[in-house]
Design goal:
Blueprint lengths: L1 H19 L5 H9 L46 E5 L11 E5 L2 E5 L8 H11 L4 E7 L4 H8 L7 H4 L1 E7 L8 H15 L3 E4 H6 L7 E5 L2 E5 L19 E5 L2 E5 L5 H10 L7 E3 L11 H7 L3 E8 L15 H7 L6 E7 L6 E3 L4 E5 L4 E5 L10 H6 L13
Parallel strand pairs: 3-4, 4-5, 5-6, 10-11, 11-12, 12-13
Antiparallel strand pairs: 1-2, 1-15, 2-3, 7-8, 8-9, 9-10, 13-14, 15-16
The protein binds zinc ion.
The site of zinc ion has 7 residues, from α4.
Length: 400
């Protein structure tokens, strides 16, 4: 199947190249379709009170698409359930989560920029040794969640690097960006090559062969939750996020993409959410997500945040930079086990690992955390001590 895909890509590229000779500007089209590496480093942004993600196709991340050769891959027990929060290879915030049990993998999102493919693809290949991602979920149409599906000419994206069997993505979007168009184009090529694609609403309604719940291994399921914004329009793209609950017996793990406060409230109303051992921090630790309405129901034990900590990418207001003070204030009531992938740095890349690639594994009883970076809780990091305050009523699981 993989071989077939490669031939299809070659044929398509060939056909495009040939047809392009007839049209001026078509090399750009080819670049766009196959993914180009924009050298624009950073667009100028106006200071904002709250982080607001852009969905444009500019601002390609990182000047060097090459993967850091020393990238570390935490050891895992393949038979155990493992949940990986990946670093995305640049100074931009983005989500990429790999769930693995046995030979079955689920990938949720592929951020943060097209060049991230150079980092996330080798990481996933290290664990997904058969080249098949059984389930691929794209939560919403912002580039910090879908750009790595597209990749670049130098670093093929997820769709061109793996056989993606079942693709589940957002039913609604307002996106018109080039990266979104490229995502749709490559997704549809994957479908033409044999993949099945369902919207999260089809899954929820179990229409057209789609399922609400997929079994990954005996007793381990990934479940599509009901988000009202699967069928109700909004101006906030983040609220379109596909939400999933991973369950292993009584242990539950929640992934809500960039769902905002209103979406979280409706999520709680529309689903019978359990206590969750792990929560992927909503919207990269934004003050506009991670509301008490949700946290008080799921009472998370571990919260992992995918972001470039302290970056001014979305706001100049330090309190609101990911992970925000308001996020800390609300989560602290439930846990101090907050981990963060990446942090801004004054080195030439502009970023470095914080906890790095974060892996949470379960043997069905005990959760184990491992990190390619340091193992400090967020509240024990130097950055936290300089920029955040742990609330006085916050829990602390540190032994005296
Ligand atoms: Zn995002």
């Amino acid at each position: 199947m993989k071989k077939g895909k490669k031939w299809l890509s070659l044929l398509l590229a060939g056909a495009l190249t040939l047809s392009c000779t007839a049209f001026a500007g078509c090399s750009e089209m080819l670049d766009e379709l196959l993914g180009s590496f924009d050298t624009t480093d950073e667009t100028v942004k106006t200071p904002e009170e709250l982080p607001k993600e852009e969905n444009g196709e500019t601002n390609e991340g990182g000047k060097t698409p090459e993967q850091t050769p020393e990238q570390e891959y935490p050891d895992i027990q393949t038979e155990n359930l493992s949940i990986h929060f990946l670093e995305v290879g640049n100074k931009y915030t983005g989500d990429c989560t790999l769930i693995k049990v046995g030979d079955t993998e689920v990938l949720i999102d592929a951020g943060s920029r097209q060049g991230s493919a150079a980092t996330i693809v080798p990481y996933i290949q290290n664990y997904c040794t058969d080249g098949v991602l059984e389930y691929v979920i794209a939560t919403h149409a912002h580039q910090d969640h879908i750009a790595g599906f597209v990749g670049t000419k130098a670093a093929k994206g997820i769709f061109e690097s793996f056989v993606c069997e079942t693709i589940i993505d957002f039913p609604l979007t307002n996106a018109t960006t080039q990266i979104y168009q490229n995502y749709i184009s490559l997704r549809d090529q994957e479908v033409a090559a044999g993949a099945t694609r369902y919207s999260a609403l089809q899954c929820w309604e179990e229409m057209d062969g789609a399922q609400r719940s997929y079994e990954l291994a005996e007793g381990i399921t990934i479940n599509i939750l009901y988000n009202a914004f699967y069928e109700q329009t909004t101006s906030d793209e983040n609220d379109y996020s596909v939400c999933t609950l991973l369950s292993q017996g009584d242990d539950h793990y929640l992934f809500t993409g960039d769902l905002e406060g209103e979406g979280e409230e409706l999520l709680v109303q529309n689903n019978d959410l359990p206590k969750c051992r792990l929560f992927k921090g909503g919207h990269h630790g934004s003050p506009t997500s991670n509301t008490e309405a949700l946290l008080s129901v799921i009472e998370p034990e571990i919260v992992c945040v995918c972001c470039c900590c302290g970056s001014d990418e979305y706001t100049k207001n330090i309190a609101n930079m990911f992970p925000s003070q308001a996020f800390v204030d609300r989560v602290a009531k439930y846990t101090d086990q907050i981990y963060v992938t990446t942090i801004v740095s004054d080195n030439e890349n502009g970023f470095t690992s914080m906890n790095g690639n974060i892996v949470v594994s379960s043997d069905g009883k005990t959760l184990t955390t491992s990190f390619s970076g340091h193992n400090l809780k967020f509240k024990d990091t130097d950055w936290f001590k300089e920029n955040r305050v742990w609330p006085t009523d916050g829990v602390s699981s540190d032994s005296p």
